[in-house]
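Incident log, support desk, overnight shift.

02:14 A customer reports that sequence design results differ from what the structure should imply. Their input is reproduced verbatim below. On-call engineer (initials T.W.) acknowledged and began investigating.
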């Protein structure tokens, strides 16, 4: 067995359903470390090196720097925060997110819902940086670090230039919390490494989406899965047809990588089914199967993530869309 890295909360009846108008801490679960100001105030490469060394547990993995530092590597990264555009990028971040308090509370409360009924409590440190588009999200069991500039509004002047539009659509403020949670909890999502079937991957993604959806207070399912409302509506309206397509083409137990990529990988459209069907359709279908399974079984979210028997989930889901 291994953990499924993608990129619990008790019984599902306890999952959060109400969106509070005023955001408050339900309980203190994670610590917050705002590194944006000190990065902005760095003036020389020497200061930048000192900052990395004094915050090595966060900055070394985030900037992919080895300790002891290699001067050329540091110089390359320092150039990202020492240019004429960095101040403007920083002020766009502050204008969008203010003091980051709402981000912190949302993420903290998601961990409250998870920790409430799980045996193993998770309390990672949450770090926010402005990195000049070096990295978006880096996680370990003890930390979540985000390059917050990646999650500016779609219309913002500064956006990463190396991502296609259909992926950039998911790099916005509304997608931030679920993206952080998916990245973090993927570390704890167990998959049967010996099986190469598409169903195995589908269920793994389905488990992850289900857990994140269950601990996210005010986010719609389409946000969790990374679809627009129109795309999600199309999927729901054609659920039976998509399921039948997978059955008729014997896709659930397909193990050829090239074939699996058509339904699991990042694509704007799943052309094989319909121009109206977005990419990553196998992940969505896995989420539907897992949701059906959890409707009929009293498991904590922690137990769900640790369940490696994807066939057990599949056959006991009784998933048969009409």
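02:41 Re-run completed on a clean worker. Output:
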């Amino acid at each position: 067995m291994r953990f499924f890295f993608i990129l619990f909360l008790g019984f599902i009846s306890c999952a959060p359903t109400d969106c509070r108008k005023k955001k408050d801490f339900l309980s203190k679960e994670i610590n917050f470390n705002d590194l944006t100001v000190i990065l902005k105030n760095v003036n020389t490469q020497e200061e930048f090196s000192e900052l990395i060394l004094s915050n090595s547990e966060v900055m070394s993995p985030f900037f992919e720097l080895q300790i002891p530092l290699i001067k050329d590597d540091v110089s390359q990264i320092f150039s990202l925060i020492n240019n004429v555009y960095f101040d403007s990028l920083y002020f766009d971040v502050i204008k969008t997110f203010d003091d980051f308090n709402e981000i912190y509370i949302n993420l903290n409360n998601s961990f409250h819902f998870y920790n409430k009924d799980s045996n193993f409590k998770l309390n990672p440190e949450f770090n926010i940086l402005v990195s000049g588009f070096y990295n978006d999200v880096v996680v370990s069991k003890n930390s979540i670090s985000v390059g917050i500039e990646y999650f500016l509004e779609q219309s913002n002047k500064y956006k990463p230039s190396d991502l296609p539009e259909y992926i950039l659509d998911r790099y916005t403020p509304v997608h931030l919390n679920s993206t952080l949670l998916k990245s973090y909890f993927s570390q704890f999502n167990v998959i049967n490494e010996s099986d190469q079937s598409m169903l195995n991957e589908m269920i793994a993604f389905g488990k992850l989406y289900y857990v994140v959806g269950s601990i996210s207070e005010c986010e719609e399912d389409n946000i969790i899965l990374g679809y627009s409302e129109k795309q999600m509506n199309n999927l729901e309206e054609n659920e039976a047809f998509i399921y039948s397509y997978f059955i008729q083409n014997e896709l659930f137990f397909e193990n050829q990588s090239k074939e699996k990529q058509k339904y699991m990988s990042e694509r704007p459209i799943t052309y094989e089914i319909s121009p109206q069907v977005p990419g990553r359709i196998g992940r969505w279908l896995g989420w539907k199967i897992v949701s059906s399974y959890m409707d009929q079984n009293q498991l904590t979210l922690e137990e769900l993530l640790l369940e490696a028997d994807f066939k057990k989930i599949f056959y006991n889901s009784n998933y048969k869309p009409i």
